[in-house]
Amino acid sequence: xxxxxxxxxxxxxxxxxxxxxxxxxxxxxxxxxxxxxxxxxxxxxxxxxxxxxxxxxxxxxxxxxxxxxxxxxxxxxxxxxxxxxxxxxxxxxxxxxxxxxxxxxxxxxxxxxxxxxxxxxxxxxxxxxxxxxxxxxxxxxxxxxxxxxxxxxxxxxxxxxxxxxxxxxxxxxxxxxxxxxxxxxxxxxxxxxxxxxxxxxxxxxxxxxxxxxxxxxxxxxxxxxxxxxxxxxxxxxxxxxxxxxxxxxxxxxxxxxxxxxxxxxxxxxxxxxxxxxxxxxxxxxxxxxxxxxxxxxxxxxxxxxxxxxxxxxxxxxxxxxxxxxxxxxxxxxxxxxxxxxxxxxxxxxxxxxxxxxxxxxxxxxxxxxxxxxxxxxxxxxxxxxxxxxxxxxxxxxxxxxxxxxxxxxxxxxxxxxxxxxxxxxxxxxxxxxxxxxxxxxxxxxxxxxxxxxxxxxxxxxxxxxxxxxxxxxxxxxxxxxxxxxxxxxxxxxxxxxxxxxxxxxxxxxxxxx
Amino acid sequence: xxxxxxxxxxxxxxxxxxxxxxxxxxxxxxxxxxxxxxxxxxxxxxxxxxxxxxxxxxxxxxxxxxxxxxxxxxxxxxxxxxxxxxxxxxxxxxxxxxxxxxxxxxxxxxxxxxxxxxxxxxxxxxxxxxxxxxxxxxxxxxxxxxxxxxxxxxxxxxxxxxxxxxxxxxxxxxxxxxxxxxxxxxxxxxxxxxxxxxxxxxxxxxxxxxxxxxxxxxxxxxxxxxxxxxxxxxxxxxxxxxxxxxxxxxxxxxxxxxxxxxxxxxxxxxxxxxxxxxxxxxxxxxxxxxxxxxxxxxxxxxxxxxxxxxxxxxxxxxxxxxxxxxxxxxxxxxxxxxxxxxxxxxxxxxxxxxxxxxxxxxxxxxxxxxxxxxxxxxxxxxxxxxxxxxxxxxxxxxxxxxxxxxxxxxxxxxxxxxxxxxxxxxxxxxxxxxxxxxxxxxxxxxxxxxxxxxxxxxxxxxxxxxxxxxxxxxxxxxxxxxxxxxxxxxxxxxxxxxxxxxxxxxx
Lengths: 513, 507
Description:
The structure holds two protein chains of two kinds.
Chain A: H1 4-18, H2 22-45, E1 53-61, E2 66-72, H3 74-93, H4 101-120, H5 124-145, H6 154-189, H7 197-202, H8 207-224, H9 233-240, H10 243-268, H11 286-306, H12 311-332, H13 335-367, H14 372-375, H15 380-383, H16 385-398, H17 405-420, H18 422-447, H19 468-486, H20 489-499, H21 505-509
Antiparallel strand pairs in A: 1-2
Chain B: H1 2-19, H2 23-47, E1 56-64, E2 69-75, H3 77-96, H4 105-123, H5 127-136, H6 138-148, H7 153-182, H8 187-195, H9 199-206, H10 213-231, H11 240-247, H12 250-275, H13 277-282, H14 284-304, H15 308-330, H16 337-372, H17 384-387, H18 389-403, H19 410-424, H20 426-451, H21 467-485, H22 488-505
Antiparallel strand pairs in B: 1-2
């Protein structure tokens, strides 16, 4: 059943492309996304705790041992649900796309299909194929429908979009190249019989091989997860993308990277996390190296977000900071930290989606500016109060106030960090504080500004009111964050059994404490 | 019962947001829900057995057991006292804002949300459950200041929010460490473990802590302390307070000083005394210096203020300083149990009495502001007792209550705190008397400059309190007198809890 999330997305893409009218294309897209979400929810209802649900298994290239094999454990299901939610809300927030509508939704749904594919693949090669499929539509979504700053000259606009699109594509491909190298090597060393995760996870790779394969593959995926210092594609790409694409990029695509880090690098090559036995600049293992990079990402992302003038860049950098928590959680190698990392993937997907929806759709599409200096005199809280309230709630969720999903996630990551790297906890705490500061600053500047001195009273041109699709999308995302925040068992009951399954045996018996 | 209490204002706020369009309907709804909450509190009083020291009205459900999160609420004497003061102060604040035209449905909804947050904080017994309310009560408070405050409101609200968050994050990190060591978030279980001296050695082992467990314990204690020190506040973590209290609309300041500052004191009693007793005793000298600073310095600062709201803001810090003094003095195991009990009873009396007095004082300031068109400088008035005798008289009573005049509510608490503390820590108590003296000086200065002296011709036409205002103020004033003359109402209520602490603190 779950496999149909992939097929319906591709079919929906075709239907949207061939739809005779824009309205029909939107309807097809929405139906497709809802179908994906419904399939995910049905799977959730029928879920047996700890189960590894085989979805499809067909021999593909038997000579090479490659299979078309889809399966879902709790982690996959969590992220499939996230994709369903993010896709649905993304379509609701791009209801107003008028430029080449059919193509827009076609690319959008191809991207969704690829993402579902990655999360459901149970074969390394298949995962890689879907991973690559997802890169192509990202490029076109940004290059054709991207948003640019207001003061960009007309001839510059195309170039700016292409710059961002190309940067994202190149970073993604560079990451993929690293992944591919590790993948092929693993396939060759394990005898070339199979690329299935269960086979590879059981195969005793030599320690020295794991020691180089782990960092290479981890780094390849971490680029897409926005790990400092390879994060620079993220703010540019997020800011330049059209709203729905930013929502997907931050909400889901960055999770592809984090998912790959966990599912491929850490699950298959846990030996790479072991101590080197010697110290370089005080680092004794890859684990410490990546944990420090994640920590830098948390603090750096938040600090840079604090000084941005462009509203969308603030959210872009905030994603770098929040994804830092995912990576830090992974590197704690504690059950609670890993659980927190997956929880944060879900939580950030929902919250970042909502933040980008407010900035890109509710604010930018109405005011045509993302610059705080232009937004401040508009005092948008009085003009579009719904957007202000949504941003306040999303901001509260984003800074990890209890009651929202972000709290449960950060709380678990921090607990894991306390156990693994006590001194890092304090620094991550500072990162959270800076996060609060930039979120609140953005709120003030964008919604509760003061009329600029010297300028006449703010021009209260009538902005179009918040439309029904926007309200539905915002409520869907907020409700998700609240429900998961108030009832975290919904996700932890999925994630924890998966982490305790035989697949992660190597990780548990290694440095897991 | 307690769940009903917490949910009632929350539902009220949502109902109000969903249905009320006009100010009149909104304030009526808000008062109804706040009164209903007070009724539930009264039911709790009736059902409460003061002789028992344990928790009553307990409710316990699974929430997220794999993370140690349970839905656990209950109330002992301390909890009952706190929810009572939250309910009373909220009603007072709503009554004070009855005539304030600027405050619409959103304002009233936020007040109800804040009340719900207070009830939750004062009754939750699982850290995560408690922390939800502790943090979420900050949001309505922030917006009350941010949206309805004075000209510097943006700055004041942000400072308030960020400072409190610094404390909260330190607190959160401390509790995460406790959770890792014990697998527990439950305040009672943690307190049990702490009293057995088991927590910190296990914790140090679980965290692979290289230093001694005592250092780790101290570190966590100070992190948790920071959370409550900012909220209460304790000098030098108070700098957010004067701006927030004076920029907030006076009706909101009533809530901030009357109820929210008590969250800090509650944290001291429930969490620091409960879970870190040994650390409190070890750090007692430092803590006492903090307490002394909190009593003395703000009293001088209050004297120097020109703005009545800032004066009373500093006065608030000073009065909470007595509570901190009492708590820290009682964290002394070698002292006699009677003295500990006296100091702690004094703290609880002072908590309630300060809530009442400070809320009343800011209510009077709201009334003055409305009559003076927003002016509230200490030199802006003069001779008011000749123009508005009733207003001046009643406000005078509140000021004398704040000063601790025997017969009014401020006296029993301060007396017991000083009585208990003096035996336990003569030096700190002696220095603190200086604060008591300065309190008298600045409060009398206020009386002199505002009510006496030559009549300021500008206010010749100032109307005195209307009948409605008098009726609204009457219950609060009566309560002040009653508590002053018969403090046993509260002392009896909390005696079970106090005796347990007095015994538990020394083992």
